[in-house]
Amino acid sequence: MLTDPEILRYSRHLLLEDVGESGQVSLKSAKVLIVGMGGLGSPAALYLAAAGIGTLVLSDFDHLEVSNLQRQIAYQSCDIGAAKVTLMKQRIEALNPEIRVRSINTQMSESQLSMELMLADLVLDCTDNMASRQMINSACVQAKTPLIVGAAIRFEGQLMFFDHSKADSACYHCLFPNNDEQVLNCSNSGVLGPVVGTIGTLQALEAIKYLLGLPSGIRNKLKIFDGKTLDWQTFAINKDPKCSVCGQFK
């Protein structure tokens, strides 16, 4: 049930036919793990907090640098040097005291990630390197936890959703079977701030839709966003029966 303060806070949600009180209660009972509190995780975490996701678990081991402020707009110049998860937890608690927030200020091991997934309904991968994405993907496949992946570089963004609760779901490794570290990243190739913000916001949107039981238009698809033209390309991601990560699940 919703309290009177929650009914007032989420009143615009309650007016939506696809949400209503029952949908808002579903959001209130949900637990979402967000890995990465940078340009993707910042808007995603704030929008999920504002939407009333009952429990958010924030994971990042990085500290804020001045170069982050060009795109990680949840932070301020006076925050430089502080742990991002600590800062984000403070922002969220100030934004919405009705929800629960827990922060993980270390680089999670595979075993720790597996334990976190036992408690999560959904995971948002907001990291910026291949090794982390592959580890998160593998853990989500094993735990059968749905995963929303975002990425951005230069003027281009990527968005994917793998519902690992379904046996026919493809996985991130099906699309990128090479585990080698990507050469291109924001540090050496740059990224336009609003591009990464767009993808992070859409990760939050897809998360809310999933938790409400609404259909997704990106399940087992790679959506590529062109920030210069605002065009989207869509590619199907087929489950690889020989995939070393998810091929055993049929």
What percentage of amino acids are in beta strands?
15-25%
What's the end-to-end separation, in Å?
Answer: 38 Å
Low-confidence stretches: none
State the domain count: 1
Order of helices and strands: HHHEHEHEHEHEEHHHEE
Instruction: Give the helix proportion (percent range).
Output: 25-40%
- Give the averaged pLDDT, no decimals: 94
CATH overall fold name = Rossmann fold
Secondary-structure-based class equals alpha/beta
What is the rounded Rg? 17 Å
CATH superfamily: NAD(P)-binding Rossmann-like Domain
Q: So, CATH architecture? A: 3-Layer(aba) Sandwich
The biggest sheet, with number of strands, parallel, antiparallel or mixed sense and barrel status, is:
8 strands, mixed
| Beta strands, count | 8
General shape: globular
> What is the name of the CATH class?
Alpha Beta
Q: How do the strands of the widest beta sheet line up side by side?
A: 3-2-1-4-5-6-7-8
